[in-house]
Amino acid sequence: MKKKFLSGLPLVLSCLLICGCGARETVTAGDVTPVGEIVIDASGDPDSAGIARLDLDGAVLPVLPDVTTAADNSELAPSQLKKGDQNPVVMELQERLMSLGYMDNDEPTDFYGDATAVAVMHFQRQNELTQDGICGTETWDKIFSSSAPYYKVVKGTDGDDIAQIQQRLYELGYLADASSVTGHFGDETEQAVIKLQSVNGLSQDGAVGKETINLLYSDEVKANFVAFGEESEIVRRAQARLKELGYYTDEPDGKFGNGTMEALRQFQSFNDLVVDGYLGPSTRLALDSPDAVSFALRVGDENSAVTTVQQRLASLGYLNSSNVTGYYGSITESAVKNFQSVNGLSSDGTVGAMTMAKLNSSDAKKKPAGSSSSSGGSSSSGNRRPSSSGGSSGGSSSSGGSSSVGSGGATVSGSAQALVNEASKHLGKPYVWGAKGPNSFDCSGFVYYCLRQVGVNQSYLTSSGWRNPGRYQRISSFDSIQAGDIVVVSGHVGIAAGGGTVIDASSSNGRVVHRSLSSWWRNNFIVAWRIFG
């Protein structure tokens, strides 16, 4: 790649040729002020001026008129790029920073915003340059060098990104206390990283580079605390609390098996924690909190917990055994409402802690003989996940108010238009990595916040987590995206706004923007999720 910086002076192609004698003729590049002169003998013969031939044919270097114009200059970068600048080469800079791990993946833009400046500062920090967030010629050259290093932090480093890494190490049990989340990479953090690398089979260098940073948020990461296969009083106490909240259905035995892991993952999902199935510090604190969110199964869910509930409803006569499918459809909802009514519970059709407790109690009432049945009908029509192929390419729904049921079966309040309207309210608010609103957002935090505001009880997911949220209708075709869909691309997520546009918290723009679903989105497209029918 050619460097595109100017020194601040107009770019002029000129040469200074010095003759031995005779008259001289000055040739300039159009009307541009020359920085030198081309000197040729009046005869036009360079040999007569004692000048060496410049190529094999003996021709002198030709003069190129008007090689640089004002329009050309506008397409080249200034001698330095800084926050607030807008220039086409910023797109190249952002793309390079993303590929090196300093910036979240996003559609590159020509705007040099806060996120770009922070990414440049992190690069400068790693390369022992002045950390001013300004991309001058030295920083540019190093970023585009073939030897430019991937993002990496080591002991002695300070920054907000260090605090994020420490928080994850704490959640995984490699840092023992929340007070260790300081933003300073000291001895304790280094030892925690080494232990993480040791447990997970990585090279134990104590630095957080490409492999380690990717591992921290992967599904394969192994934690440093109570996990699958262990047996202890800590596990038994956690099981008891999970059962109290409606997530665990068996009797607590202190053995960390599949049931405990599934219950923990569901608890983490409902309580905005990283869903990893480990009993770590953050999960333990959330379990013990009086504000812990109780379990509730609802239409659209599909997991082993649904199967357990359906089996119990079938044994009590509320559901036909052929409808035990693991998918919470309309037949299961009707059966739950019937059970709740007979057992003196609020008939809302969701299985929360009280309903779960009653279902598993010895005094749960069976369906009265001769009562009308709500469990009949074809299992394929109301208790299996409908086909998720394709999807309508029509416009967005503009109806507000009542809930709607998408063809994937998930019932949520509000409408697609309500979600788009909510997203539009936040246009221009700053992009801040890890922020979940209401005054700043990153891409996944923006989607999480907007869904919550329109009544969708969706737990926080990272952009990678949105690859398979396991609840909504899957839209596999980019051309089938419609307003209100959650659009997932490699490393990024946004809310489709209709008309081939998307609203997202953009790191490259440095703010929430409304923009086209361009070829970049198409080329990086993974999946979309239809929440509203």
Please give a structural write-up.
With 533 residues, the protein is an alpha+beta fold. The chain folds into six domains: 1-76, no CATH class; 77-143, Muramoyl-pentapeptide Carboxypeptidase, domain 1, CATH 1.10.101.10; 160-216, Muramoyl-pentapeptide Carboxypeptidase, domain 1 (Orthogonal Bundle), CATH 1.10.101; 233-294, PGBD-like superfamily/PGBD (Muramoyl-pentapeptide Carboxypeptidase, domain 1, Orthogonal Bundle), CATH 1.10.101.10; 304-382, Muramoyl-pentapeptide Carboxypeptidase, domain 1, CATH 1.10.101; 404-530, endopeptidase fold (from Nostoc punctiforme), CATH 3.90.1720. 31% of the residues lie in helices and 10% in strands. The chain has helices spanning 70-74, 89-99, 114-126, 137-143, 160-171, 187-199, 210-216, 233-244, 258-270, 281-288, 304-315, 330-342, 353-359, 379-382, 416-425, 443-453, 519-524, and strands at residues 24-27, 38-41, 80-81, 135-136, 296-297, 351-352, 404-405, 411-412, 473-475, 486-489, 492-498, 501-506, 511-516, 525-530. The strands form five sheets. It has a six-stranded antiparallel beta sheet. The protein has a two-stranded antiparallel ribbon with strand order 1-2. Strands 3-4 form a two-stranded antiparallel sheet. Strand 11 and strand 12 form a beta hairpin. The longest helix has 13 residues, at 114-126.
Question: Keywords for this structure?
Answer:
single chain; 533 residues; alpha+beta; Muramoyl-pentapeptide Carboxypeptidase, domain 1; 6 domains; 6-stranded antiparallel beta sheet; two-stranded antiparallel ribbon; disordered N terminus
